[in-house]
């Protein structure tokens, strides 16, 4: 991201602006054109886990056939709750594999409360608890289906990863400018925020075929895409037909069945500001006033109080 990005949020404590978040946001109209934008939305970024639904689509196109709740888990940065872990085991078992095939780094669950429960119970870090284990299990199951080597499934030149790249470029409508390594060890493909939003719009508007299967899995089982207490889950339930996926470094992409889509990223990567910005973006686009939308629930995802002496004394507020 270039220097000189605009302020997209202010950190306000006791009426005093003590800091800022800088970043970029794009909103696409239903016809795919840019409705409005803030900052630099054409430059490549690393969307991190926001790429997962696009990776899942590539696997479905390769023949992966999972029930909706497990396909949603293949799109997930899950919280490591027991139902997530059991779902990952089901994906692996369906392919004749076990946890030893996972090449996710050993980790504790992503969600604080779940992580603390594991530690209290004497549990240790493990690959299946890592938040990307659903995606990795789906990758392994796809390799088994296609007869591809499972030991090298994370290499960028593996047939699976080459197929994902082809699908990714088709969905974003732009060439991949950089291939990095994600936190889970899988290849990480770059896209502009416009390209990322465009790809989510393709999923959200699909009425049949693999893209529709992925979108419907996310809509029907949003708790599998994130967790039972996450802001992403609240947003899925508050806006009819919405699909969304957050990523590390404060990335977030959301789309609606009519083709409208939003993507954002802050330069400092602060996770706390991500839902604040998306709630404000949806508000600016008029979504909160539409039929069937739980506006208060959306607004609640965007309220982040700052504490002082054990009580709220400030907020992080959008500034665009």
Summary?
The protein has one domain (7-318): Beta-lactamase. Helix content is 38%, strand content 20%.
Q: Please, could you describe this protein's structure?
A:
This protein is α+β, with helices and mostly antiparallel strands and 320 residues long. The chain has one domain (7-318): 3-Layer(aba) Sandwich (Beta-lactamase), CATH 3.40.710. The protein is 38% helix and 20% strand. The chain is built from twelve helices and twelve strands. The protein has helices at 52-61, 68-74, 82-94, 112-120, 133-146, 159-172, 193-205, 209-220, 222-225, 231-238, 274-284, 295-301, and strands spanning 7-13, 16-28, 34-38, 44-45, 179-181, 187-189, 191-192, 243-247, 251-255, 261-266, 305-308, 311-318. The strands form three sheets. Strands 1, 2, 3, 8, 9, 10, 11 and 12 form an eight-stranded antiparallel β-sheet that branches. Strands 4-7 form a two-stranded antiparallel ribbon. It has a two-stranded antiparallel sheet with strand order 5-6. A hairpin with a 3-residue loop joins strand 8 and strand 9. The longest helix is centred in the middle third of the chain and has 14 residues, at 133-146. It is globular, with a radius of gyration of 19 Å. The model has no long low-confidence stretch (mean pLDDT 97).
């Amino acid at each position: 991201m270039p220097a000189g990005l605009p302020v997209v949020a202010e950190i306000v404590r006791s009426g005093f602006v003590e800091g800022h978040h800088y970043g970029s946001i794009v909103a696409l109209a239903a016809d795919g054109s840019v409705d409005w934008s803030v900052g630099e939305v054409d430059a490549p970024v690393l969307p991190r886990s926001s790429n997962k639904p696009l990776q899942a689509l590539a696997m479905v196109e390769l023949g992966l056939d999972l029930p909706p709740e497990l396909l949603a888990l293949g799109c997930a940065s899950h919280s490591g709750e027991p139902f997530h872990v059991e779902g990952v085991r089901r994906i692996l078992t369906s392919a004749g594999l076990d946890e030893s095939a996972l090449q996710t780094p050993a980790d504790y669950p992503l969600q604080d409360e779940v992580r603390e429960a594991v530690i209290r119970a004497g549990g240790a870090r493990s690959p299946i608890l890592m938040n990307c284990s659903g995606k990795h299990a789906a990758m392994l199951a796809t390799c088994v289906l296609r007869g591809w080597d499972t030991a090298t499934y994370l290499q960028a030149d593996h047939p699976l990863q080459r197929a994902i790249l082809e699908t990714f470029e088709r969905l974003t409508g732009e060439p991949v400018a950089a291939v990095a390594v994600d936190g889970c060890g899988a290849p990480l493909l770059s896209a502009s925020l416009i390209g990322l939003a465009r790809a989510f719009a393709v999923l959200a508007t699909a009425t049949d075929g693999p893209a529709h299967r992925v979108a419907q899995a996310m809509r029907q089982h949003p708790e599998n895409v994130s967790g039972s207490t996450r802001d992403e889950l609240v947003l899925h339930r508050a806006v009819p037909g919405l699909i969304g996926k957050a990523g590390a470094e404060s990335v977030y992409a959301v789309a609606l069945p009519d083709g409208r889509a939003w993507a954002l990223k802050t330069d400092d990567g602060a996770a706390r500001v991500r839902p604040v910005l998306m709630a404000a973006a949806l508000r600016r686009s008029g979504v909160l006033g539409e039929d069937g939308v739980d506006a208060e629930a959306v607004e609640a995802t965007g309220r982040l109080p700052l504490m002082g002496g054990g009580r709220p004394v400030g907020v992080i507020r959008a500034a665009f």
